[in-house]
Amino acid sequence: MSIFKLKHWVNPVIGVSLLAFILPSNVALGDMTVYESFATKNASRIELIGEGAGEQLGAAITTGDFNGDGIDDLAIGSPFSSVNRKEFNGKVSIFFGRKNIEFKKNVLTTFVPDVVFYGESSGDQLGTSLTAGDFNNDGIEDLAMGAYNAYYRLKRAGKVYVVNGQLTWDRQSYDFLKTKPSATFAGVDNGGGFGLTLSTVDISNDNVDDLVIGSPFSSSKEFTRSGIVYAFFGGDTFMSTGVYSGDKADSTIYGNDFNERFGSSIASGHIFGKNTDLVIGAYTADDNDKNETGKIYLYRGEKKFPEKSYSPYSTMVGVEEGEWFGFAVNVKDLNNDGEDDVLVSSFPYNGNRETGKVSAFYNKSDFFKKDSVVYAEEKLADVVIKEPRGQALIGANILTDDFNGNKINEIIVGAPGIGDLESDNAGDVYMVFDEGINKNVIYSADGESVTSTIHGENPDDWFGFAVGILDFNGDGSKDLAIGSRYSDNKQASDNGKVFILMGDGAPYGVSKTVVDLDDRKINRGEVIHEVIEKLDLKTKKADLIESCYQYKEFCLFNFMAISLYNDIKLDPEPILYPDVPVTHKYYEDIVIGTMLGLVNGMTTEKDTPFHPERSISRINALKIILGAADLVRSKYRFELIKELGSSEKLINQPSSFEDIDPKIFAMWWYPRYANFAVEHGIIEKTNLFRPNDKITIKEFNSMLDKTLEYLNSQSQDEEAQS
Prior knowledge:
Blueprint: E1 32-38, E2 45-49, E3 60-64, E4 73-78, E5 91-95, E6 107-108, E7 115-118, E8 129-133, E9 142-147, E10 159-163, E11 173-175, E12 183-186, E13 197-201, E14 210-215, E15 228-232, E16 243-245, E17 251-254, E18 262-269, E19 277-282, E20 295-299, E21 308-309, E22 314-317, E23 325-332, E24 341-346, E25 357-361, E26 373-375, E27 383-386, E28 397-401, E29 410-416, E30 427-432, E31 442-444, E32 452-455, E33 463-470, E34 479-484, E35 497-501, E36 510-514, H1 524-534, H2 537-540, H3 542-550, H4 552-555, H5 557-562, H6 587-595, H7 618-628, H8 637-644, H9 647-651, H10 670-679, H11 697-721
Parallel strand pairs: 1-32, 2-6, 7-11, 12-16, 17-21, 22-26, 27-31
Antiparallel strand pairs: 1-36, 2-35, 3-4, 4-5, 5-7, 8-9, 9-10, 10-12, 13-14, 14-15, 15-17, 18-19, 19-20, 20-22, 23-24, 24-25, 25-27, 28-29, 29-30, 30-32, 33-34, 34-35
Helix pairs in contact: 1-7, 7-10, 7-11
């Protein structure tokens, strides 16, 4: 499974009334404690930073004990690393875990890799995929590394390199052009993508790890570019020299339709009993007249897995066009009934991104019946995690583990920030702990019902695209390693970064109690309507508004400079957004708000839509209110830097709240509004402001009413002085 930004597209692997509201009956309700944190503010963390421009450290992550010392180690892929006079040959770095890690000011950035592997040739992209397992059965875990675009027999057939785990590593760097790995596996088809997906599975049921390799662009005799999955059985003789091509695999599983990218995700577990079963994703599979709905296929395990498999045991199908159902899969017992369940992501990168989600289907589902074809309607899922924050796209990966040591598995989901052009969201990782997983509920990240939300650092970092679980410091508690593949440093862009967040068994972040979940969130259209009406802007700014209508092009100059909407019309009636026609309920308010510079569209999305139906964050609502009241004037970043005197002073602005930190890129403008509001009694001074939480109607009305009270008091003071 892989996906790239357009700028690095080497071999593509993808692409109301305020009262009239009823919540779904199965949404998690009631007072609950949730947690929120930022990766850059975690109390104890390690930040691993890519060395080279564009290398994308953190594109892939796996964990294992590669030196046999009993402490988990971390392997990280940098598929676009260009080293040894090659371009995009890629590299993989191993960082050995260790006890007694000393943190200075809570963060450690001086870690260097203990072992590094380099791709053979330009364009190989070593490190696109990784997995760990004891394939040679010697008691030490080995590392498998995918280079899906590597040469084999003069074709870009793809390779997978396996290097033995060692008690003592004899060198710090391995160039696969000069140093042969313990074993090499190669694809058959040119451009087949052999090694895009790797998984460690005991498919042979002999208690020895086997290596399963996805080749999602390979062709079978029946279907062009359907995808193929190859399995190579582990054992004492697994590690030997030479190259093993896909046609020598111990077991081969063939895709079921043209261009479905079968093998782009692979998971295994014990669904039917003691034999290992496989779930294989084909996220671009079509369903009749719907394109790229996606499918997953279940293959029931056998004591001796067949050498060739052409038909699945059962099939589950996505229901929406462009859903990409099956982009990520996982198999684990969620409800603690002793039977493994199936988790699947819908990752609509080229579809309606608001429908992204992760669905869990418990073992009793019809999907587990032989020859069944089940449509993955949301109502059939036992657990759903959806509605990510901002432009985060949920479901890049799914992990399950007993994070807090209570023998019940939690769900960890990556949701990188992905916009049409670039994202204004860094990305998130969502965690759902065991309480409630048995209750057949829907968890909303945006609605604050996931247990823990971890935010990335800077916009467009794709934080959360890769995630790993390990005990890196050997203290008995699980830690999280989170990839941020497009992170920049001061010298270059897209170096990538990995955050290792030390855990203590509890959810990450600062706790907060979510109450009044039936007090729904106010949307963007309603906000600008209420602000204009209650502040009486149509009267108080009548001359300015009239002037704007008379000189639309001049008044809307800045707006049109940043808008990507090519069909803007100024006459006879302004059409400024693709989703706000003249007939829209809040058309006039949105146009006036845009003319006054109070609101604009989503500049990181195609055609810059306004999304009047979307909820709005507390800080953005406050910004609109204070701006409309002429209390705090909006400034560009460069204007504020000039006013304060330097970029250093910008990131060191004082803040009234613990959760507003101008060192976090997206928060550079937050303190001006929050500090003003605290100083003048518009919001209360507490430890947390929750700036990125979606504001409820009650919270919004309180802010607006307090602003009006402040304006009235100012007016009375002026009258008294005169």
